[in-house]
Known about the structure:
By secondary structure, this protein is an alpha/beta fold. The protein has one domain (4-305, 354-455): Alpha-Beta Complex (Amidase signature (AS) enzymes). Helices cover 37% and strands 13% of the residues. The protein has 13 helices and 11 strands. It has an 11-stranded mixed beta sheet with strand order 1-3-2-4-6-5-10-11-9-7-8, with helices on both faces. Helix 5 runs parallel beside helix 6. The longest helix has 26 residues, at 305-330. The chain is globular.
Amino acid sequence: MKSLHELSIAEAGAALRSGCITSSELTRHALARIASVDSSLHSFILVTRDRALEDARRADIELRAGIDRGPLHGVPYALKDLFDTAGIPTTCHSGLRVRHVPTEDCHIESRLKTGGAVLLGKLAMTEFALGGPSLDLPFPASRNPWNLAHFTGGSSSGAAAAVAAGLVPFAIGSDTAGSIRGPACYCGTVGLKPTFGVVSRRGAFPLSYSLDHCGPITWTVRDAAAVMQVIAGYDPQDPVSVDREVPDFHARIGKSLHGLRIGLPRHYFDGVEDTSPEVTGAVEAAARTFSGLGATVEEIRLPDFELFNACGRVILSGEAYTIHEDDLKMRPRAFSRYTYQRLVLGAALTAADLTQALRLRRELTMELNLNALKRYDALLTATSLGPAPRLDSFPADWPPKTRMQTIPYNVTGNPALAMPAGFSVSGLPLGIQIVGRPFDEATVFQIAAAFEAAAGLFGRRPDLQR
């Protein structure tokens, strides 16, 4: 028998509808687990106990009355603390906003409320979704459930830690250069960055207007599809929201991979400086698994990773500086040291820098979608070049160069899913990334779910008793 915190969203939903458990039981179990283990993980900034119990009570009444609001009805969740919640503080993990209490919900929170989900609280992050695991902030940095001495990844750090530790079945994060997929990789969970515009960002504090994405972090691929079924959809108040019918994200899960073609940009990780041999081995093993499942896996070449990286970093720096310019000038010491050092770089950019980056962005996007993804149904690559680093490896100034291989798909806006692909000899998760065509999350889920079933990694959970 699984413990309540080990139930997937689908398993919890079936138990709720059969009457085997109640949402109140699920919620009280989750709250007790948070109280028991989160003092060492620091994944939550705020636990909304009273709100959670009220949400759960309402869900129980509705489910008993035959009112079914969908796959998340009665299921607990938590939000990265840059998503506005009416009457509940939204701090962005920063002293600059520690007293900020929104009067309206963000779009995602509104959809989750309508779907009957149960809010447990707000999750830790890196400051303004940009800094590092800083010690000079109002809240402590999250720690990795697989080894508390290691980083969770940023910036959706608390979200991935909470899901990996079984504190919540799902969490909502944001991803500007890999901030959903990086923590998912380091913490051994599933993290989806949807196609740009599929999930509204209204009410989420921005980092980069043209690179920000919002999406789920979950324990399984099916759970990620279930969350997407609720949070996706057109929002006329978000200027980049795409007016398309919400598809059935589960439609292709369980279908054979025979006939699918997967491109493998081996040059992005194999032989690259700082790549762990364990990562290379995990990606190559995944490629063999996909071949065994009937897909055709072929090596391809994409534009150099550093072109994508430079393009994305220039755009991110320029847009982030614009958002924070006044505070950087008037209250620079209110930021953590890491965040300030990264944000202030935007002041040195010129109009020519940004213009060239935007021109390059279009060229790179066309190359990916009109060349590589015209010939292949998806791409397989690494999420990170190594497992999670130790927290004490971070220097006092300027976080070390990221080992994430995630920013290309923020530049292009393609859907990209991170998932576990094994473990290092030290017991830390290793991950792969599945990248799809725009608006083809269904095929990404199909491929990822097939690997998940074949690899059999999801029975292994972190030992929080160490």
